[in-house]
Amino acid sequence: MTNEQQVPLQTISANVAETSSSSTFKTIYQRLHAHSGIWYMLTSNILFACCTFSLKLIPADMFDIMIVRFAVQTIVFGIYAICYKHYSVFDTHGQPIASALNVLMSSGTNLTYLAAFYFLPLSDLNTIKYTYIVWAAILAVIFLKERFRFVNGISLILTAAGLLLATKPQFFIKTFSDMFIQTPKNISLTAIATTTVLNQVTTTSSYYYLGVILAFISSLTKAIQMIARKQLVNTKQPYSVMNFQFTAFALIIALSYSLIRRIWQPVGYPWKWMFSVGVIIGAIQLITNTFLAKALKRENVQLLSIIGTFDILYACLLQYIFLKLTKSGMFYVGASLIVISAIILSIDNHLRSKKLKQQQQEKNPESNA
């Protein structure tokens, strides 16, 4: 009778557990890697929101810090485009109007966004900013001769309602309620109360509504920038060249504003804050640009546009953590309507592009073989 060597049950169970756990981690890693574009986009948005919010906490003018930030980005994009890729940074690829619009609108988007941030909380600013998806669809109908569809109308209505609710509608609510509620017996009392309330709202909200106007301009310029960039991408204009042109022009504008402001208000430059914070923000912005480019290569633009609306949530969280600032329920309803309009348009664009690809494949079956 031969003595067989037996393997202890503890060893077998340990090996099985180790194999199953390693396969589980491998599966999780594969799934995360398959959707790495989403994680790049989320990380990019979080970094951008934190950088923007930090400007409120720094005792220095935002535009002074932007001088160093744009200088850092211009140098890096210039070295990459000119020295590494050997691109011509002044080549418009036969699209001079689109190139000029891209430079002007990119700079306008960033600078009006910062100007609006003087007067608005970041949550309100980001809510208004993401209406650019709707405005881009409307501008595509006007300039790119796309057909205005029912989806565009629904998104436009939702955006308008969302803007009205999210941007402190006390003035409108009070006006309309007084129009329908007042009775002949208390007209004089109501008129006095209405005048008092409206005066208070006007005085306390004048700077707020100035910020709303600037944020709205920023969203419109962002929409025009998207149309211009779409034209340039179709002509194979490199992103590094477009970014170099934008940051160089924005640097000139920020410097000009800084010098003109000091003619009227002669104050010194906060060199310490400018170089320390400006370099850090400039470096982080380069990282966010890299992550965004990686995300665009891995996921479709429509999905990334939906994920981008999470900026509103990040802003609300940052405001609550550092400033203990909370928003009303009316704001969240309005922000939700704007997000829903962006989701509707993004899904519709995805379905249309998918249908167009299928039609092209049916027309050219030999190229797909």
From TrEMBL:
The keyword Transmembrane applies. It comes from the Eukaryota. GO terms for cellular component: membrane. The chain crosses the membrane at residues 37-55, 67-87, 99-120, 127-144, 150-167, 207-228, 240-260, 272-292, 304-323, 329-347. SUPFAM superfamilies: Multidrug resistance efflux transporter EmrE (SSF103481). Keywords: Membrane, Transmembrane, Transmembrane helix. Residues 36-166, 210-346 form the EamA domain. It holds the Pfam family EamA. The keyword Cytoplasm does not apply. This is EamA domain-containing protein. It comes from Adineta ricciae.
